[in-house]
Amino acid sequence: MTGSRSLSSGLRALRPAAFGVDPSGERMERIRRSPNYADGVFRNPEGAPRPDGAMREFAKSYFRKEERVLRSPAGVVPVHATTLADLAAPPASGLRLTWMGHSSVLAEIDGQRVLFDPVWGERCSPFAFAGPKRLHPVPVPLPALGPVDVVVISHDHYDHLDLPTIKALADTDTLFAVPLGVGAHLEHWGVPADRLRELDWHEATKVGGITLTATPARHFCGRGLRNTQHTLWASWAVAGDEHRIYHSGDTGYFTGFKDIGREYGPFDATMIQIGAYSDFWPDIHMTPAEGMRAHLDLQGDRPTGVMMPIHWATFNLAGHPWAEPGEGTVSAAHAVGARVALPRPGEPFEPTAETVPSEPWWRGVALVPKGGWPAIEKTVTEKTVAEGAVSEKAVAEESVVEEAAGEKGVGDTAVGDTPRDKAADSGDPESVPAG
User: Fold this and answer.
1) For 360-404, how does the pLDDT look when each residue is reduced to its tens digit (9 = 90+)?
2) CA 399: distance to chain centroid?
3) Helix H segments across 272-375?
4) Are residues 313 and 273 in contact, defined by beta-carbon separation less than 8 angstroms?
5) For labelling, which of 157, 200, 204, 208 has a CA lying 20 to 30 Å from the CA of 366?
6) Angle at 421 between CA 48 and CA 304, to 5 degrees
7) How far apart (Å, rounded) are the C-alpha atoms in residues 285 and 357?
8) By C-alpha distance, which of 170, 177, 215, 225 is closest to 198?
9) What letter would DSSP give residue 49?
10) Whole-angstrom distance, CA of residue 310 vs CA of residue 105
11) Could you tell me which of 233, 160, 247 has the C-alpha nearest to residue 199?
C-alpha cells in the first residue's frame, strides 16, 4: 500500500502544470448543483456525443502526406502591423474588434476592453516541444495590448486556455470571466480567487459598464490524460450601453442559437467558429455554412450585424485545407447576403462602420486550388445590409438553407449544412454579482 501511494505521488509530481487541476471542494459542490450537470458530467444541449472514437479514426487519415501539404499556408501569413498607438486611441463608434488569430479577440466595447480566449503561446499543447505550432506570429505582444478589463475564456482546451498567457495576465489587475469549473485551473496557475467570475449557462456578471453572460455551446472539455468532464464550456454574450457582441467559443450547430439571439441580441458583431471541422466530429465544431446559419439565428429579426470568422488560420487542427474556412465563409455569406468582416490577424476594425475588411487575404499565401479561386460576387452591398435590407436573391437562397438537410463531406462548405437535432430550452438568466 505504501509503495502504491509513493508511485501515485511520483506520477502527480510528473504531471505537467498545463494539465491544470480538477475542481474540488465548494467549487465541485456548485458544479453538482448545476442544472447542466447530470450523472457525473456536464451535458450538451441537444445531446451531442463526445468525439473520442472519432478522434482515433481521424488520426489514421491526418498524417497522409498528400493531404498534409494542403493544411498549411504556402507562404508567409500577412499579419497586420498593429501598434500600441493604434489600440490606445478609442474607437470612434464605441466598438472595435481586433482578431489576434484563432479564437483570440480584443473587443473594445463602450469603454471596456474584453480579451477573448487569449493564446499567445507558440503551441496549443501541454508541452513546449510537441503539439500544433503557430502558423503565424502573434500580431501584438501581450504587453502592447495595454490594460484589459476582463479576460473571457470559453472552455479549457489548449487552443483557448493557454498556461503561459494566463500566467502573464495573472500579474495584472484584469478580471477573468470563465465557465463553471474552469476557475480551478486559473487558481492553480496563480490567479487570485477574488479576480474570478465563474459562471454557469445564463448566469451573468457586470464589469464596469458591460454585462457578460455565459451562454450555451455544444462542445466538451478536458486538458489531462483523464477527462472528468467537470468543467463547463460556453459561448458569451457581452452587452454595453450602446453595443452587443457574441463570441461562440467552440461549438457544433444547435437550434439554441435562436434562443440566445432572442434573449441577448441582436448583436452588432458575432465572432463565430468556422474552422477545425470534420465529419469525424460533426456535433462539436461548425463548418462555415453552419457558422453562417448560427450567425443568422443569433440576429433574429434584425440581420444587420457583422459576422467575423474565428478559430482558423493559426493552428492546424483538422483535415481540411488551410484556406477552406475562409473560402467557405465568403461563399456562405454570399449565398444569404450576409455582411462579413475578413480582417488579417491583428487588423482592428469597427463593425458598425460603413465598411469593414473584406478582401480574401489568404489567397495570396495559400496553394491555389485546381481550377483557380472562385470569383467573389456580392449580392448585397454593405450599405444595403447596414440599412437592414436583403435582396430577393439572398432571401430565396436563405430559404434553400432552411430546406436542405446535411449532405456534406469533410471539406464541404455548401449552404446545405443544417442542424440535426431538436431545440434546447434556453432557461432564464440568473444574475451573479460582479463583486
Assistant:
1) 999 999 999 888 999 876 544 344 444 443 433 343 344 333 333
2) 27
3) 288-299, 324-336
4) no
5) 157
6) 105
7) 25
8) 177
9) P
10) 9
11) 233
